[in-house]
Specification:
By secondary structure, the protein is mainly alpha-helical. It has a single domain (2-196), classed as Four Helix Bundle (Hemerythrin (Met), subunit A) (Up-down Bundle). The chain has helices at 6-22, 27-45, 51-62, 64-75, 80-107, 111-136, 148-163, 169-196. The longest helix has 28 residues, at 80-107. The chain is flat and about 50 Å long.
Amino acid sequence: MLKLLRPAVTRVLTPLGQALARRGVSPNVVTLVGTLGVAGGALGFYPRGQLFLGTVVITVFVLADMLDGVLARMLGTGSLWGAFLDSTLDRVGDAAIFSGLILWFMATGQRVLAGVALFCLVAGAVVSYAKARAEGLGLTCDVGLAERSERLVTVLVAAGLSGLGVPYILAVGLWLLAAASAFTVGQRILHVYRQTVPT
């Protein structure tokens, strides 16, 4: 769904990518800095209830998730190692975002929402694992209602608006995300089943 926006975002990031390429900055360094920024923003601000500020910081560093790819194409240095590092550190960033929210929910006595956020974290990891495992077996698994970009936008928009005082938006966003993530797991399991079990 949000993949349709990727070309437009790439065009916006291209000038910055060109500037970094001229300075010889490695795409892997951009990936690492982006992950550290996301984790720092999430774990530094969310547990203290600074949801809007945390979301702004996280969003700035999330752009590095696209910038490293732009930079790699410009330098012609795309590699299997770079792809592996990027995917692995994506999981670290996701874990930091939901962990920050869980810590805040627990500190404020919102145990149900802490549980929903934990479910979103685990379900998101299963969504990603299902695709990786299927592709490792030589199958396709590029289906799903809530892929990583959709999950990330949903939680960040909900958290940011909650930080601005919009009531119930974070709870609604997390419940919807939990349902969409569970549905996506089912979609991917069914998709792989249809490829592997003769009818």
